[in-house]
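I am still getting used to backbone structure tokens and would like to learn alongside you. To get us started, please write out a protein record for me. Start from the sequence, derive the backbone structure tokens from it, and show both lines together. Once you have written the record down, we can walk along the chain together:
***
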Amino acid sequence: MVLSLTTAYLVAEVVGGLLTGSLALLADAGHMLADVFGLTMSFAALRMAARPATSRRTFGFHRAEILAAVANAVLLLGIAGFILYEAWQRFAQPAAVESVAMLLVAVGGLVVNLIGFRVLHGAAGESLNIRGALLEVIADLLGSVGAILAALTIMLTGWYQVDPVVSALIALFIVPRAWGLLRAGLDVLLEATPAHLDLDHVVASMGRVPGVSAVHDVHAWTIASGYVAMSAHVQANGRPSAEVLHDLQSLLREELHVDHVTLQVESADHADDGACCVMDPRCLLRTS
């Protein structure tokens, strides 16, 4: 629904921006173009992520949504840079703007973006992909508000420079949020430890499970938004491995919210030679 509304109003804003000479409207149309591209990628990525795993892609296609989010962030940064450049050029050489038509188009854009925000807001916390799409809608919403303010200012004062000023402010608002989205996506692709997961706390919790004497070779990463995986070697002290494994998996899934757990339980006399024990403070820096 958001994609259909955005595509329809993108055309209206481009036509309105060209007819009125408003850079703010064209800047907002640029954001909407990013929305159309980003929402299309998001939709395609979510459809792809729903496909079953194969023998060649054992985790399925979940990473498709992360790739879409990263591409979305790069697109937003590129558009913000272009708008800043155009705003600088327009501020140096102000152009006349048809403020009444600009106001009408901007109000319509505001309505469309408010609908889009309402639709996407609920799912943004569950998916990095949807978060990227929501950021674009928020940027567009602010763009519409900015265009309305610029149109009213021109109508009342005739100060045409307000148009590039508003455009630049919108672009500057986008940059840090797009950068944050890009970093979050790259962290997933580089298999960094999930930000919400404290490995020291995880290992300490595992060490309190009866039968566990040491934990080493700990790895935690994100497959896709809300899908955390973890692997570790656990040294047991005589308790049956099946019982230790059951308790550890219950702990990690139910209390620490790790979705995919792979554990190797080993006895003290068969522990990996030279392996680093996370529970030994001297080894913490060697733990990944």
The CA atoms of residues 236 and 267 lie 5 Å apart.
